[in-house]
Structures are given as C-alpha cells and as structure tokens.
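Protein: Heterokaryon incompatibility domain-containing protein
Species: Hypocrea atroviridis
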Amino acid sequence: MADPTGRTILHINFGDIIDQPLALTGATKYRFRFLDVAALAHKSTVHVLEFEDLPAEPYAVISYVWRGLPAHPDVKSPLPNIHVEGIEGADPISVDVLRLISLAAESFGCRFVWLDALCILQAHEDDKAWQIQRMYDLYRNCRTCIVAPGGLQRLVAPTEETSWMARAWTLQEAIAPPMVHCIFEWSLGNCIMQSNFPLKIEEIERGVAAVAPLNFTLLTAMKGTGFEMLDWSGKSIQKPSPDFQIRMFGDRSRSHPQMRELVDAIDMKGKTGMHTAIWRCSFMRMAKYPVDTVFSIMGIMGVTLDTTKFGHDDRLEATIALMQAILARGEHAEWLAIATRVVPNPRLSTLPAFPQTDASRKPVLESREGMKDVADVMDTGWRLADTPKGTMSDDGYFRFSALSASVRLVQNQEEGSTAFESEFGSDSAGKWEVLSQSSENASHKAVYIGRWEQYNNGAFGVMRNPRDHALMLIEEHAPGRFHNVGYAFVPEGVLTTLHSIFKLPRGLVLSSVFPTAKVDLVANNAGPNSISNIYILRGAKVLTTGFLDGATAEWNLGELMLSLMLKRGITQRVFA
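Structure follows.
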C-alpha cells in the first residue's frame, strides 16, 4: 500500500549543496514528487518526497521561466544555488527564493510545493512524458499557484519587465489552479493598489517579499499609473514615484494583448468562450519545443493527448489532434477568427500562421504587411458566439456545414465606405460583393461563422460593434477545393439587402440575427426536406466541398435556416 505521507528521495541541508547538478538518484519513474514546505521555510533543508498519487494534503505549485532575470551582481546571498541534472542551460535555482516561496505556500496552508525542475526526472524523457500528461490535473488540484515572473535566481520588483507572459507553459499555470498569486520583491508593507478594483498586497517577509492575486495584478498592470495606494485601513499612502506601475508582465503598450486575453481566459474559466481566449494566448507565447505550445493548453481544454506520439517540432500534428478531440465532444470551433489580421496558416487555414520569434526571442505574427509584434495584429476583448461544430480528419481536413453566399472581389478597391449594402469590406482581404444570383463560376464564398460578442469585464468599457456578423472568405482553387483567405465583419444591413433580392419559399417565418444572405443548399439522401452544404477546409490546397445527392437550391440564409430545418424534422449537422 502506498505511503500517504510520501517516500523521501532527497534530503540535503542547504550547507551541503555544491555547485554540481543535483540528481534524484533514489527516485522511481512515473511518480509525483513534492518539496516539503516546512523543511525549506524553517529547517534550511531541501526535502523531496515521492507519491504514487497526488497527496491528500494541500500543496502549492510554482510558475516561473527557466531563463529569467539574472541575479543582482552587487547582492550576494549566503544561501547556495541549485543546479539540476538534465536541464543544463537553465538558470540556477536560488535556495533563498525557494525559501521565500515556501513561506508564501505556508501562508496558504500548504504542506508541499511542486517545482518542475526538481519534481520531474529531467534526464528521463519517459518520465517527462508521463508528467506532462498529468500536468493539468496536478495544477487543477493544487491549493494555489505561486508565480515568480522573473525566474528563480531572484525575485523581481513590480517595475521590472520579465518574459513570463511570453512562455507557453505559464498559460496553463495561470488558469488551471483554483487560486494564483504572484510573489515579488517588496519593501512597502501591507497595502492596497486601488483603481476600480482593489489589489491587496500582503508581505511574506518584512521588507523583502510580498504576494498578490494574479488576476488583480494583471488588471492593475493594464491600468498603468491609474491607481492610488492605501494601507489596509484605507488611509492613503504615497506611491514610490509618480510614474510607478507594474511591469512584471511586460510593457503596458506592447503586452496589452497578452495581458487582456489572459484576463479574459481567467474570467471565462469553465464557460463557453474560454477556448477562444486560450487559443489567442497560445499564439502569443513560445516554447523551447513547438509541440509544447499544444501540450500546455490541452488540459485546459479537457484533452489528454499521448505526448509520446509527437516529436518536438510536431506542432501542426498535435494541433490537429487537439482540434479532433474538441470537435469529437460536440464542441464549437472556438479557434475561428482568433487573429483576423494575421495571414491564414498555409497548412491549416482556419488558424493563423504559427508565430515565430524575433531577435529578442519575442513572438511575432505574420500579417500581409510582414512580420508584426503581437500587439499590432492580435485581436482582443471579444469572441465569436455560435461558431459551427464539426469533424476533422487525421490530415487536417476540416469538414463543416455552414450558411454561405457566393461573392467576388470588387474591382474598385479604393478606401472608403462601400457603395451598396450588398458590398462589404475585409481588413485582411479587401472589398467584396455578394452576387445577386447563384453563380457556379464564382471562385469565392463568404461563410457565416458566428456573431461578435464582447468579453464582459468590469475593468474595461463596453464596446459596441455594428458589424457583428462574422464571415470567413474562402477561395475555390480546384473543383470542390477551398482555402481560407480572410475574414470580414458585416452589419445586418448587408444581409437585409439580400433579403430583398432573393425570394423565400412561402410560409417561412424569419426570426434570426442573421436573416439575409444567400446560401447554396443541397438535398441529401434523407429526403426532399433535408438541406446541407458541406465544406472541408485545411490549408492552401485542400479538399473542401462535397455535395451530397440532390439538386442545388438557393435560399435566404441565417439561423432562420436552422429554424426551418427543425420545423421540418431535419437533424442539422454543423461541421466546424
């Protein structure tokens, strides 16, 4: 029977730690390992225990970057650094920082703390794969996550910039736990940073370090200097300087999209709409191995992939597997239109092109004007509601049924408003015109994929968007073969114009937020009332439409079609 108190696999006093890689020679593969909080905080000892299952007693987890800010050259700690076998190239770990984190964990009632560097057998790929598959559960079941944004060589001051927000694994660490707190260098005592919400800062060691909730720390960082400081009694106190602001997650102007989407993901945790924010966050973060950008979000999305089936560079293949699993549960394709100003991925065109890194190792995205900082091209603050559902094949072919219209590019592409309500513009693909009749020769279609909806958060103002109907523009490059070329957001007026052009069958009741665009429909073997239009999209050269048996018909489009089908007893399969 497993020992619920754990089995000791390492017990070493601070004074006995030498400048050599530390190995967990007594460890057994495929086990959970934790550091003893009391030993670190009060006994000057690193005590690692091993468990067959997650411990019943409360534990904390640590979120940090392997390569953070360097130690202060003029500050010499009397405590040693730890080097871990198997992660050569990563920063050494300051024992003093671990001690402070353990004090924070203890303040939240935690008996243990988990640190990937010491709790995963870094020199054994099979143990790492086992741990990664269980990582989400480990974070989900902790009492709190403690974020050290600048790494583990030292704590950072709130005013110092770090790379924590740009790393892939920190996304899961910020969302999965029930509570998340930041730890940072602090000498101003217990206080509150007050804007339209309070950020409570609590000292862990007087004059040395403090903790604060991550979500309110992010929101305060986005406020810049727009807050006042109070003591815990509510009395105003002076800021360290007039321009004092939190920069631990990056410069406010450059890192706003990353901070905003993380806030949205935290706010939407467990709700429809969270996945859109997660997908966006993942495209603004990087990992040593590209496949980790998928492994780091799969658990949040309720998926456990077999990590041994993918190589370090298999981001595309792992992404397809993740999408397949999401769609197989009957969920919506919430990744559609996550970055409408970024060029479509040439191999999986319903996603943006995967990010690259610039010379400073920061993520950049490809627009039609070239490589851009994520702050310049990433969409934030909204999601698409009612995106379609569907299936995806192993090679990434994306099959879905959607309401659509034949369209063509407008010859006069000069800037300005569209001349007619049958025309609409796309920020990424120019001006388009909806054709007034069915055209078998039309090479493009506009496919309705959802309705624009703001993420509601008390920290941000309410946005109004009159162009709240989202279309995906697809191009036919071979018979029945399409790829995504961009997105457009159109007002209801564009669709209302179509309502006056096309006649509906008598007796239909139109009650839809999207009532007025044209769609090609095909009767299938289920009977004369069964209507379907199937698209299969992958990348630039993709199998896309497959018409079932029956004749093509023209109808006015909208969610009204769903009503029509339901009234006629038709089961609607919507493919994403």
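Remarks: The two ends are 47 Å apart (CA to CA).
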